[in-house]
Each structure stands twice: as C-alpha cells, then as structure tokens.
Amino acid sequence: MGSIIFEPRGLTDHLSETAGYKAGLTLSIEQLCDVMVGTGYPDKVRASEIGAVRIRSEDYEDMFFSLLEGIGFTEERYRGSIYEMAQQFHKYKGDAGAFEIYEGVMTLYHQLWPGLIEKTRSEKKKAIDPSPLLSAVHQKYGRVGLDMAIEHIEIVNRGVRLSPHSSPRYVEWKYVLALDGLFLGNTVSPEHGTC
Fold first, then answer.
1. Judging by DSSP bridges, how do beta strands 177-178 and 25-26 pair with one another?
2. Rounded Cα–Cα distance for residues 36 and 22 (Å)
3. Which element (helix H / strand E) includes 55?
4. Which of 76, 125, 133, 163 has its CA 20 to 30 A from that of 55?
C-alpha cells in the first residue's frame, strides 16, 4: 500500500476530527497519546506536531483503530476488513465442503453486490438491502451459505463503519463531548449507549 504525508499538526487534527465524527468525542494531543499508550503511536503523534510525517496507509488505519479501541468505541482492536476477510477465508479453506460453499457464496456476492449498490444509489437510499443476495445464497447453499453471506456482509459493514476513510456513521451526534467531560461528570445524558 501507499503512504500518507501529513503536514505539521495535520495528523493530530485528522485523528481528532475523525474520532469526533465517528464516536462523538473530542481529544487533545495528550489525550490522543494517552489512549494509544503501548502502541508506539504516541511518539509519531508528538513528532507530527513539530514537522511533517509520512505514514504507511495501513499503519495509519491501525493507528486509528487503536484510537477507537482506546476511547472505548470498539471493544477490541479492529484489524481492518481485509484482515477479517482473510480470517473468514482461512476459517473455511481447511474443510473442502465448506470451502466449496464459501467460494460459491463469494461468487454470488461479487455478482450481485454491485447491482445492489447501484440500486441503492439510484433510489437515493442510505442503506443497501441485502435481501436479494441473501435469498439467492439461501436458495443455492442453504443455511450454511446464508450464515457465510451474513458473516461477510457484517465484515464489510464493520469495515465501512470503522474505516477512517469512509464517511458513514451510525449516530448523528447532537453535541460533542470532550474526553475530560466523561471523567469530570456532566449533566447531559448520553445520546447513544448507556451511563
């Protein structure tokens, strides 16, 4: 993969703004570093305040996923959709019967998904209806294939939701809370989740 060059202070601005957009939380430079302790990324963040930094794109994604885990947006460290798709592939490749079904499901996915995207776009909808794909998979491969298709769609959905490069988010935040506000207390009820 390629790399991304951030101008001085650009990396921290981008991380903070993207975390705010996805999770509704604003972070200072020190808070960004605090939530990524143990990853090696705080040094890169601090260095980016002084000068430009070059980061491989997969390292930037990993840094962002580390940030999401550090602020509690994800329960565990997300590794990216490519990693999860590879895990799904390896999960089935050792069983010839399951792998044959998996390959068939992926073939149907790649045949039908572009049309579903286009239909969603032309109807000006915000969410893709996977029903035609799921019906086709179920008809051809039964419950096992259906479970594989749902698993794959969940991987893609998680990738879109968590990627720092995609715009979808699942909550339109009415207010943004600084990280300190979580610890100092406030009178505002959470918009999403629980206290």
1. parallel
2. 17
3. strand 53-56
4. 76
